Design the sequence.
């Protein structure tokens, strides 16, 4: 590989990992080699790319401006290499995927297992985050594609995959378990464990849309933390059905009389500019059961 490309890879990996040491471990290089490659880029371009500190490194303002162009070069190189391999009949490459926890836990292990049976030469890299993080990774080119919920950024190319129902989770001895299905008003004044991170998510939207006012005791983005606290009788919650498969907790699950769904999509910047490996993965996903 061209020496400059190796430097670009070292730069991007250092930014993504947040330190020279972690980047070196990921790339299987010596830490001093990664540091030197980035120093060479800074000398060649006459700018400081990274600010060193005790916690690791962070981008300078110059580095922030340059990073998208370096990512684009690496993405273009990956696309070129993939096309060459495709022409030669070699199915290889790497697919970088952004996702949130319920998809990572319940869909991707089966999908990856089946995909690698058919395409053993294609590897994958998975980044786990919330909706905003996954969307940002797609826009920055850090991942080829990512799982999101609608409404996603209208500039992104999306493939609709699944409607995922939100359900109430309750302690097994809770009075509301006597009902087969719940009304949203049943949540009023109940001790409540809210699934949320940063901006408002589906559960907050569900509560607001239906004018429901529970007694919010705890807020977290971790589904399993909510289930654990529900099991201990600390409150009730509302979680997506996808995360409620094969759960290790003794809790009761109830649908609502008027069900509420999130629409899960696979998003990318431009389907026409994907690497062959990413294109194979997406085509594979479209025609496979995603349960």
Sequence:
């Amino acid at each position: 590989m061209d020496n400059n490309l190796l430097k670009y890879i070292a730069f991007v990996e250092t930014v993504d990992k947040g330190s020279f040491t972690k980047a070196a471990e990921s790339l299987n290089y010596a830490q001093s080699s990664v540091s030197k490659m980035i120093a060479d880029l800074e000398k060649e371009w006459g700018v400081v790319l990274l600010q060193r500190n005790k916690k690791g490194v962070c981008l300078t303002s110059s580095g922030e401006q340059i990073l998208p162009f370096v990512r684009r070069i690496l993405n273009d190189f990956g696309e070129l290499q993939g096309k060459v391999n495709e022409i030669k009949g070699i199915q290889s490459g790497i697919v970088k995927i952004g996702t949130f926890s319920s998809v990572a836990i319940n869909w991707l292990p089966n999908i990856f297992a089946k995909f690698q049976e058919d395409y053993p030469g294609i590897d994958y890299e998975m980044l786990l985050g919330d909706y905003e993080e996954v969307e940002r990774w797609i826009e920055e080119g850090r991942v080829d594609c990512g799982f999101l919920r609608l409404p996603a950024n209208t500039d992104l190319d999306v493939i609709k995959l699944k409607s995922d129902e939100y359900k109430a989770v309750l302690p097994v001895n809770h009075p509301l378990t006597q009902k087969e299905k719940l009304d949203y008003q049943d949540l009023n004044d109940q001790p409540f464990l809210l699934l949320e991170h940063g901006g408002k998510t589906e559960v907050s939207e569900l509560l607001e849309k239906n004018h429901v006012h529970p007694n919010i005791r705890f807020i977290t983005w971790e589904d399993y933390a909510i289930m654990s606290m529900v099991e201990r009788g600390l409150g009730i919650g509302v979680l997506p059905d996808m995360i409620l498969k094969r759960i290790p907790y003794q809790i009761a699950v109830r649908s609502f009389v008027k069900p509420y769904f999130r629409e899960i999509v696979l998003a990318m910047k431009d389907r026409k500019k994907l690497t062959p490996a990413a294109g194979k993965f997406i085509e594979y996903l479209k025609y496979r059961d995603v349960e």
